[in-house]
Amino acid sequence: MGFLTELLQTIGDRSRSLIYRPPSRPDGRAIRPDISQADLETLCELLISVRGEASGVALAQHIVSRWEALSSDERRIFLRTLAERFGADQSRLDAAIAAYQAERTPASILDLHIAAEPRRQELIRRLNLAPKGIATLVQMREELLAFQRDDPGLRVVDADFQHLFGSWFNRGFLVLKRIDWSTPANILEKIIRYEAVHEITSWAELRRRLEPADRRCFAFFHPQLIDEPLIFVEVALATAIPSRIDAVLSVDRKPIAAEEASTAAFYSISNCQEGLRGISFGNFLIKQVVEDLKRELPRLDTFVTLSPVPGLARWLKAEMAEERSSALGEEDKAILKLLDEPGWHLDAEKTATVEKALMSAAAWYLLNAKNAAERPIDPVSRFHLGNGARLEQINFCGDTGPNGRRQSHGIMVNYLYKLDDIEQNHEAFVSKGEVAASAAVTKLLRPDTAPAVQKSGRSAGAAPQKPRMEKTGASA
Length: 476
Known about the structure:
alpha+beta; Aminopeptidase; five-stranded mixed sheet
């Protein structure tokens, strides 16, 4: 890969001076602009029109270099130009529509499909020819996502990036690598930087997560981003399902031999590239890691997560403010006010008082609270349930650190990946919105809580689907 990158770099450097000396007509007038003077829009038009691969590499490299030198405002203007001036060729599209309406044949459908493609898609493809093309395009989309918050017109550009990235970052192109203490330091430094669930505060802490025999870390890489992890997962090997993150990350814990483990717990999954937001890697990552661990350690029979519940506290605050809540009774509301008191989790009497009401509310949130698309409000829940996992266990005071208390009042969740049930759970979730849950979770619901209703512009979901309960197997 390094040799190929250097080769492409050399082609670009040498061909720039040879290929883009503006050729002339017999009367001496230049046919092409001097790329050193042309603006980016002109260069992009030229890139779309060139036919030679070497010349395309050189021009793509030049455009990438020019992009990197732009200020933030200039980059926003460039992306706006892509939205406004690099859409479909309107005259060609009109002709294709007319031809299709006149004769609806496979050929006319193909012509219509080709004509409807925005020209910026071909531009993005050709920018990918540059040696640093894919890295630059990922960074370009990161800025695009930030800009489009205030400029919805840029969403058409983002749709093209997502379409192309969905192919370029297909699972078939990704490489799964184990990250351990012998991994190059530049990659380990990125693991520290990108950790998004449980902060790594030092190299010593990173070593505790990677070096012991009962710890694993795996990451997906792309062949053109060899030193940039796309997503990684941290795994704790254990003899039982963990319920508290402190037990997993404790400095004083006693490691076990990998061969003794019966359970693999995925306790942190971090996406590394903001520019690849919305491109699905996690489902492939978990399934691949499960397969690899099963081959390495045949005694493993339980694969679970120890997951945060990032939306619970925000949702609970809104329910507490409702005059009539579907999820909370008046007695629950009175009890749950204790959560506003600093240090409640350190007081044994308060935790005992809060536990039942908070666990019941958490179960209602995870089983019934839905967004406008009739999917769970909680993003972590949507991810794992969509991957075919089962909501296995809700853990009181699972994460009593500052972030855990802020996001979920300390609640953590185990999602079970039971290999025989993954496809069935996935299909039921996607087609019917069913949440696969263990009997232990559904029993936490209070029998008198009412069906969910629409509330003040936010959807708590229609009458909730009855959770699909499954018998708990070896993981119970």
